[in-house]
Specification:
Helix 1 runs antiparallel to helix 2. A 6-stranded mixed sheet has the order 3-4-2-1-6-5. It has 2 domains: 71 residues; 67 residues, Transcription elongation factor, GreA/GreB, C-terminal domain (Chitinase A, domain 3), CATH 3.10.50.30. The chain is elongated and about 65 Å long. A hairpin with a 4-residue loop joins strand 3 and strand 4. By secondary structure, it is of the alpha+beta class. The chain contains 3 helices and 6 strands, in the order ααββββαββ.
Length: 164
Amino acid sequence: MSLSDEVIRKEDLRQALAALIAADLATRARAHRAASEAATHDEAKPENDKDTRALEQSYLARGEAMRVEELRAALAEVRSMPVRALLPTEPVGVGALVTAQEGDATQHLWIAPHGGGARLGASSIQVVTPKSPMGRALMGKRAGDDCELAVAGRTRVLTIVAVR
C-alpha cells in the first residue's frame, strides 16, 4: 500500500513525534540527574590537585541540563505546531506532508520544527526540519517544482509530487 492509499492524519504524526521527543527528554533528564549526583557524590571529591572527576561530571551535568531544556522547548513547539490539510497548490511549510521523487525512488517527508531524521507512520514518513539542507530546499516549493540540494559533495534533484 502506498502513502497515497493510506489515510495519514497529521495529528497522529504530531503525536508520534511528540512521543519520540518526550522519550528522549525522559532519558536525558535521567542522565542529567545521574551526572549531577555523580558530581556531588563523596567519591567524586578530588584526592589531589590533578583529580578532575567532579569537574568532569559537572561539565557533563551542565551539558545534559542544556539538552533537557532544548528538548522541553522542542516538545512544546511540536505539540503546538499547526497540523492542517494543505491545498495542493500551497507551498511547502512547517506541517506539510510532502511526496517527492528522486529518480525512481519516492520519499514521503513531513516538515516539522524538530525531530529531523525520525521515521513515523510505520517508518514510511521521514521527519525533515526547515533548518536541514533538504528542508531548506523544500520550503516554499509547490507540487510540480524541482529542488536541488547538495549533500556530501553531490547534487540531488527532488521533484515534488504532492503537498498535503
